[in-house]
Amino acid sequence: MAPIDNQNKPALRLVCLSDLHDAQQTVSVPDGDVLIVAGDICLEGRLAEVKRFDDWLGTLPHRCKLVIAGNHDWPFEIVGKGAAINLLKNAIYLEDAGIEINGVNFWGSPWQPEFCDWAFNLPRGPRLAEIWDGIPSNTDVLITHTPPYGILDEVFGEHVGCEALAVAVQRVRPKFHVFGHIHECHGVLKQGETTYVNASLHDERFCLRHQPIVLDLQDP
Ligand SMILES: [Zn+2]
């Protein structure tokens, strides 16, 4: 029997998904070390949706589950958001906050450029730049709901991602930047030192069309 090749074993396997919109029951999720959910748990923004999501998370084997909110996740934005956070018993909720897992630094934030007055909206420009200034420069895996401007962010031929976030990503240079929000652009793109992942599972017609994306961090 051939010896097991530990050299090729990933140090940390990340399983990324976003934009479940309360349709998680039919999603099959590959196993891994860290499950990342980059926002839009809800469709209508109800606490009952958060509860259903958490129950589903409880059936998954990943030893660590990181969740951020998105523009549909009203229960996490309104006053009394504690109720939503308390419902997440099977995950760690990150809102402009980070966590270290096996020497790998993760940071999560729900904010996006203003569009139709959704949850966690802020005007483009200085207010968003101020939020992104808070991303620590030693971040290895950045999780946001919005894409940065110019990367996996096109709608009808126009880039709609966040300009200030693109600047922040150039400063931080994370190994991975995981996001969703723009359903049109599910995919992976490596540019410079950063691999960008739009992990939206829904497409632009709100059909659940895509699979979670698996990333291996070989050298944390
Ligand atoms: Zn969405």
UniProtKB/TrEMBL annotation:
Task: Give start-end of the signal peptide.
Answer: none
Which segments cross the bilayer?
none
Q: Which Gene3D superfamilies match?
A: 3.60.21.10
Q: Where is the Calcineurin-like phosphoesterase domain?
A: 14-185
This one is known as: 239AB
Molecular function per GO: hydrolase activity
Q: List the source organism.
A: Methylotuvimicrobium alcaliphilum (strain DSM 19304 / NCIMB 14124 / VKM B-2133 / 20Z) (Methylomicrobium alcaliphilum)
Query: Which InterPro entries does this one have?
Result: Calcineurin-like_PHP (IPR004843), Metallo-depent_PP-like (IPR029052), UPF0046_metallophosphoest (IPR051693)
